[in-house]
Amino acid sequence: MSKQDSLQLNQVWQKLFKAVQNQDINAVKALCLPKIFCVVCYPDVVKDPEDYFISARTFTNQYLAKVFHEKVRSVIQSEAYNLWIHPVPDYLPSHLKLEKGQKLLLYELAVQTWKAGEYAPGHEGGTDLFQFVKVNEELKFYGHTTIP
Length: 148
Prior knowledge:
The chain is of the alpha+beta class. It has a single domain, classed as Nuclear Transport Factor 2, Chain: A. The protein has helices spanning 3-21, 25-30, 56-67, 70-77; strands at residues 32-38, 53-55, 81-88, 104-114, 126-135, 138-147. A hairpin with a 2-residue loop joins strand 5 (126-135) and strand 6. It is globular. It starts with a helix and ends with a strand.
């Protein structure tokens, strides 16, 4: 990731995190794409596991607290996260319009939420990924997923 991309991702991330902390739903929505990729929303809202996209409104109204739970917030506040770009070949969600020839690149912020054994004995640990995409040179929140 270039220095410029890293700075841009950190900047939009800080805005999003501040808006979440302040419970400023309008500010959160302004930083989001119209549809948000949300694995943790399945099966509550998302009925088809092949399509994890929900409206930004549904995401902010029903899932913001679940995605940004207390453990995630505490790790993020310690600034213990990693940044990287993840290319997604041969896939572009129908609602996402990119410039001609542009491929889907996910700008990701990874937070190791749980270390191995921390949540429960034998638990493998977990990482939350907050994903952004560049639209007209501006990063927008694309979605959230977890590993595992």
